[in-house]
Design goal:
The protein is built from four helices and six strands. It has 236 residues and is an alpha+beta fold. The radius of gyration is 45 Å and the shape is elongated.
């Protein structure tokens, strides 16, 4: 009887041991796919958060005499030049003169196209060497389709130097003072900026003006005295 009970206990212990071994080997195998799945989700999320491509920078394109290909200025690489060129046209009013100078007096022409990214928005024709001062012509037909009136405008005196420093092949202009794009370059001859000579000239002009005023006052006084004497003689 005792032996039979020992055999039954041994068989039961072996069965329990086999069950434990089976659970130990099958448990991790079923959990493995969950772990793999949990790692795949972050990868998909990372791929969906890729940065959006940057939009092209704003700028200006300049074409004209002496330029074999358009001069492309962009705000991310040459912001100072872009601002300086746009400053030549950003002050124009709504209406300009209907007629400009004669074609023979305009000189070289440079077309400036203002872009927002890769999209042309505005276009202007610049004449930095026009007789009588720089000129700007705004066509009625603009790239962005907006309605405007065609017209001629007087340009800034710094137009030639601004275009030259931006890369347009123009001769240096010595009859204006321009800070240029880099700022502070003097383009007037040194003798034109002599303060002592300017003061002497101003004093000379003042002296001539005072003498002229004295002469006028004497003339008026003598004239009034003559009239008074003539009236006195007639009343006697």
């Amino acid at each position: 009887m005792v032996r039979q009970m020992r055999r039954a206990l041994a068989v039961l212990a072996g069965t329990l041991a086999a069950a434990v071994l089976t659970l130990g080997t099958t448990g991790p195998a079923t959990a493995a796919p969950k772990a793999a799945g949990s790692k795949a989700a972050p990868l998909q999320a990372t791929a969906s958060k890729a940065p959006a491509p940057k939009s092209p920078p704003a700028g200006v394109d300049v074409t004209g005499e002496g330029l074999a290909e358009p001069l492309r200025l962009r705000s991310d690489t040459q912001p100072t030049h872009v601002v300086a060129v746009i400053d030549q046209v950003n002050f124009l009013g709504r209406t300009g003169q209907p007629n400009g100078p004669k074609a023979a007096n305009l000189g070289p022409k440079y077309t400036v196209v203002v872009l927002a990214g890769d999209t042309p928005k505005q276009t202007y024709d610049l004449y930095p060497k026009a007789v009588g001062g720089p000129r700007v012509y705004r066509p009625a037909k603009q790239p962005d389709g907006r309605k405007t009136s065609a017209g001629w405008f007087l340009g800034r005196l710094s137009m030639s130097e601004t275009l030259r420093t931006a890369g347009v092949p123009l001769e240096r202009q010595f009859d204006t003072v321009s800070g240029g794009v880099g700022g502070g370059e003097r383009v007037l001859p040194e003798e034109a900026l002599d303060p002592a000579r300017d003061i002497d000239e101003a004093l000379g002009e003042l002296q001539r003006l005072l003498l002229l005023n004295v002469a006028v006052m004497l003339t008026i006084t003598i004239g009034l005295a003559g009239i008074a004497l003539l009236i006195r003689r007639r009343t006697r």
